[in-house]
Amino acid sequence: MSYNLPDASGHFGPYGGIFVSETLIAALEELKAAYAHACTDPAFQAEFDYELKHYVGRPSPIYHAKRWSELLGGAQIYLKREDLNHTGAHKVNNCIGQALLAKRMGKPRVIAETGAGQHGVATATVAARYGFECVVYMGSEDVKRQAANVYRMKLLGATVVPVESGSKTLKDALNEAMRDWVTNIENTFYIIGTVAGPHPYPMMVRDFQTVIGKEALVQMPEMAGRQPDAVIAAVGGGSNAMGIFHPYIPHESVKLIGVEAAGEGMDTNRHSASLQKGRPGVLHGNRTYLLQDENGQITETHSISAGLDYPGVGPEHAWLKDSGRAEYVGISDSEALQAFHDLCRFEGIIPALESSHALAYAAKLAPSLAKDKILLVNLSGRGDKDMHTVAEKSGIQF
Amino acid sequence: MSRIQQTFDALKAQGKKALIPFITAGDPHPALTVTLLHTLVEAGADVIELGVPFSDPMADGPTIQRASERALAKGVSLRQVLAMVSEFREKDGETPIVLMGYANPIEAMGMEAFVAAAAEAGVDGVLVVDYTPEESAAFCAAMNARDLDTIFLLAPTSTDARINQVGQLARGYVYYVSLKGVTGSGALNFDEVAERIPKIREATGLPVGVGFGIRDAETAKRIAGMADAVVVGSRIIEEMEKYPDDAVARVKGLVADIRRGVDAASK
Known about the structure:
Chain A is 44% helix and 19% strand.
């Protein structure tokens, strides 16, 4: 399968593109040009690789979860350990890439949106590392729920701005970051945290995250003697999934499975399954599947995992779904929690609740497969940030 | 000839500039919108921009965001906005109405269905903030087929190539965003406006309206001295927020005052 998307105007089939106010066009043109130049400059790639190796700690290992696989009694589960990255998740890969670009473009100030705070922490981290002023927009509801991450960002020197508009969550933080960007175009670089937004963001964020899949392509034959039968990753905006899927797209024998948050159930209104329950529309600069009402207003979403709690999804996932190259499934809050506890108890790894959705689907699938089948799960982040949420669900107060 | 073009031609013949007030449909209350539209006309509006509320108004500042939220809290949909225009048309067949909003409510209704319904309701033009020229070919074709004008934004950061590109598609007038930022923000850069307007007028062959940051008769007068139309939005909504019990009369007074500013420049 030859695959060379997006096209020059940022489209993945009918999805993606540039849907923004004219006031942002010049900034996007500038970014597109700077990124195109960086892509052809070996010095940029060398600096990116150096930072990923020495600052982030890449390559991240692949780990065979033998004991858990044994207990499940079917396919072998391997974990791509993005949780071992500096800052504890895959988010930092992209932040390093965009920070290096901001440095090249001479922008002294970076801004970001964040939901749970992981992308905000990663952005604050790279801003400290490169000496940028940093402002992070975060829904005021999320600020309340994620006090520890708010403090982390402040320790790293960032200003955290609570967003009071709309539903006061991730989507509104993104709106507010866009408003900041349009006002401060000259000196500001907007570090978007996922494979969404106007072109070139979905492509650029994906490119920076493909380091995950490229490493896995090399590591799997070393670890298991061959490529996996399926690659499984959680999908909110979809950056960790795109990062591990993309290098596997031409390997047609490898199934790609994206796991959306089914929240309290796919038949309720309390989920974040944009690809399975949404309709195509336009939000945040691109055309993609959206959770929306019959009048085209964006609806509020739910997931136990704040990182998956988003009403849209990266446009490339929309394309992979329609083309049939990837399959998208749902995992509920309670199924994700079970997988969270199982990985803690059986492998000594505390996974992020986002990643727990991918783990839960692997646990569902594995028993139905022969023991020589291989599932590769992107363990996109560690679960330290989720202690409060999980404890609360178990009725424990700190 | 579209009603918008007729309006601009008539004003030009009289040596006058256009005043284009903006309100959000359904704010402060859906029952008040048609009354407000007539009030705006009485106070001197030549064209009215009627905002279609959206859950994620990315290009709007806090004032218009709040207006959008209030309207959505009352359940105002795009279909209802069109019904408001129909009702306005029962008594006013002259004043052009331009709907201003975001792409998703239109796409949810279906682009063709929306354009047909808008024409039926008596809408004259539509400005979709997040439809760039690159993404608007199908929309513009549908609009042109119904003789509706597609209005586009231009910004201080728009290149000459970009202005020409917009000129290929735009009809009715071009809306020049007078500052970098969202609606209702900061101070105007008059020198920049003075320099850009003639270029845009020449490149597009269309009248140029200026908005974002016009707050009183004085700024309206200065802008009217350079542009073909003055757009005022956030300031009107602020007035209604400040005087909720007297909104209609207050809006009338404010818009009439701005009208005097616009006319002072025209003479």
